[in-house]
Amino acid sequence: MLELRSITAGYARNAPVVRDVSLTVAPGESVGLLGPSGCGKSTLARVAALLHRPDAGTLLLDGEPVRRWRHHAPREKRTAFGVVFQQARLSADPRLPLTDLIAEPLRATGRGAEVPGRIAELAPVVGLTPDLLTRRPHEVSDGQLQRACLARALVLRPRMLVCDEMTAMLDASTAAALVAAVEDYRAATGAALLAVGHDRTLLRRWCDRTVQWDSLT
Ligand SMILES: Nc1ncnc2c1ncn2[C@@H]1O[C@H](COP(=O)(O)OP(=O)(O)OP(=O)(O)O)[C@@H](O)[C@H]1O
């Protein structure tokens, strides 16, 4: 259970971009967050995934208040989240072959021994063939790179996925494949989802419920 209570957050003192916003995602639930460009959806998604410290408000994870964010957050809380951003190229180290990109969270948490097994499991789930796994980000398409970013988000088996405009840059068939991969993962694990976007039709089809940004305050 993820509860955001009266969250205020931003990038400069006295100029919050998210003001007094509350949102709950129940265990296993999928929630679509809709709102106009620039309203603060990504900022709230980053707070929810413990990547951005709010200026005020409370975040409860399974009833426990989170007090530390980013690398200061306890590992078991940080690794509860898998996050996929809109712009795969900004979130991928250009030096890493896709296989190492996907493996990053395992290596960072001292679980390097699991890399071969998890790559073998995840590559077909996200639709990456072995020839793609050895290529670097500049040698693959945006859609192929986003497939790798989704695999990276799943590699630690998170109980909560945060997908921030995951499909916005992709063609319809790649978008459908990635949504299906997320849903298969959720069906198998019971993970919850917070999906952020502007595409009302997609989010309504994808999620148990959608919430409009204006209704959160
Ligand atoms: N790193 C940053 N530094 C300063 N301001 C930022 C930063 N990131 C976002 N902002 C500003 O915060 C506001 C909210 O941005 P955010 O990305 O959260 O909105 P959004 O609803 O996700 O928009 P979009 O749908 O266009 O992605 C915007 O006015 C944006 O310019």
Helices and strands, with pairings:
Blueprint: E1 2-10, E2 16-25, E3 30-34, H1 41-48, E4 56-61, E5 64-65, H2 75-78, E6 81-84, H3 98-108, H4 115-126, H5 130-133, H6 142-154, E7 160-164, H7 172-189, E8 192-197, H8 200-206, E9 209-212
Parallel strand pairs: 3-8, 3-9, 6-7, 7-8
Antiparallel strand pairs: 1-2, 1-4, 4-5
Bound molecules: adenosine-5'-triphosphate.
Adenosine-5'-triphosphate (ATP) binds near residues 39, 41 and 198.
Strand order of the largest sheet: 6-7-8-3-9
CATH topology: Rossmann fold
* Silhouette: globular
Beta content: 15-25%
Q: What is the number of helical segments per DSSP (H or I, 4+ residues)?
A: 8
The CATH architecture classification is 3-Layer(aba) Sandwich
Helix content range:
25-40%
Number of strands: 9
From the N-terminal CA to the C-terminal CA, the straight-line distance is 20 Å
Name the poorly predicted regions: none
Give the radius of gyration: 17 Å
Overall pLDDT: 95
What ligand species are in this complex? adenosine-5'-triphosphate
Q: How are helices and strands ordered from N to C?
A: EEEHEEHEHHHHEHEHE
**CATH superfamily placement:** P-loop containing nucleotide triphosphate hydrolases
- Kindly name the structural category: alpha/beta
Domain ABC transporter: 2-216
Protein name: Peptide/nickel transport system ATP-binding protein
Keywords: ATP-binding, Nucleotide-binding, Transport
GO molecular function, one term: ATP hydrolysis activity
